[in-house]
Amino acid sequence: MAEEILDEKKIKLVIFVSQNNREQLLPLSENNPPTLFLVAGKKIIDWIYKITKKSGIEEIGIIATKDDISRFRDALSNDHMLPSEPPNKIGPFHFFELNSKNGLTREISTNLIEGFLSKESLWIEGNIIFSKKFFEDFIQKTQGTDKLALVKEEESEDKDFMGIAYFDKKYLESNLLGASCVADIYQRISTKTASSFNTMQYESGKTEFWKINYLWNLLDANQVLITDIKERNHGTIEDRVTIIGKVAIEKGARIRSGSYLEGPLTIGEDCDIGPNCYLRQGVSLANNVRIGNACELKNTIVYGGTHIGHLSYVGDSIIGSNCNFGAGTITGNLRLDKDTIKAKVGKDVISTGRRKMGVIMGDNVKTAISTYFMPGVFVGNNSAIGTGVILGRNLESDKFVYVDQPTTTIDWKLKVKEKKTDK
Fold it and tell me: In terms of domains, do 7 and 128 share one?
């Protein structure tokens, strides 16, 4: 078993929170590194800790820039902070500062080699997530090997590194300096000792492993990982609430009368749902989310503090923190021709590979009543959408879009009908 293998070897896990592809993950990456993104009711870092801990990994090193380390400390301190810990540690997490321009310095490389790494260690990029099933299969294949890397088989002879590797310490001592991501280390080692690598074949749609190159990849991971939640109810459920399937309701949450919950889905602490809401499979609500009367949500990740106003529909979407939806806000998630949805990322328009996808929205966004989003639209942080807008193109951060509607005013006299009297 994977747990027996790791317990015996006492290997360490290292998460390399690189700066690569951060622009492709806007607007969410503006305020948080990918490892702090939400999937199926948890941050990615919490999923990784949960899955790897069950397999015997007890300590995790996080290599990140100074700003990202500060964000990690804020995110992890409530659940993992122990008394009298040094500034570079929170519970099982050890922090190593990455120079954003020059990568790993000689000092940090030495600290890793001499003070943290075990003889064998597992390294992952900060933008990947995987299931328990995948991790157990991966660890089983590392037994008796010097190092193992997951690759994706392409039509060409080249193989793309997917962001997870199992390294013997002897290969790391001369290959850490200046590295900015796990791929740097992998390429250096593979160039010198290519024949000694074992590989696992990656099959898209079958292997429960996701590399978050684009934000919609979070929805793919969410649909699978949310099936792994434990059914529980620590909140308040009013009369005439229907719950079907696996639903996790955390403490302080309130489910108002007439709501229909169809799991698997998860509802965070102090959420307020309904009345008369329909929450469908794949809904993942963080803490302090308010879903107003007669709303419908499906396969959607909602960050903390967001309020989705009454009479709204949100499907196959990601909604950032502290957003506020006016009544009747609707996300379109399916093209009329049912073709694959395309999205504009930076200057490029690319296929999402998804038949259904709604809006991807940053933090602190506000919508007025009766606003509409076409499939595959991105909305930046701190922006606003006015009444009656049909948003068919991406909206940058710190922008307000509204309809400049011509109006005409004329005199108006109310006609009063005479009441008929019985003779």
Answer: yes
Q: State the Cα angle at 418 between 416 and 419, rounded to 5°.
A: 125
CB 218 within 8 A of CB 277: no
Q: What is the dihedral of CA 72, 74, 76, 81, to 10 degrees?
A: 120
Position 250, amino acid: E
In this structure, the answer to whether residues 171 and 293 fall within a common structural domain is: no
Looking at the structure of the chain, the number of domains it has is 2
d(C-alpha 67, C-alpha 398), whole Å:
22
pLDDT tens per residue across span 301-310: 999 999 999 9
Among 354, 326, 358, smallest CA distance to 340 is for 354
User: For residue 179, what are the contacts with CB-CB under 8 A and spacing of at least 6?
Assistant: 16, 103, 104, 185, 188
pTM: 0.92
Question: Region 292-307: what's the mean pLDDT?
Answer: 98
Query: Which residue segment(s) compose the domain that 166 sits in?
Result: 2-213
Q: How far apart are CA 374 and CA 146, in angstroms?
A: 50
Answer yes or no: do 233 and 375 share one domain.
yes
- What digits encode the pLDDT tens for the residues 176-197? 999 999 999 998 888 877 556 7
Residues in the chain: 423
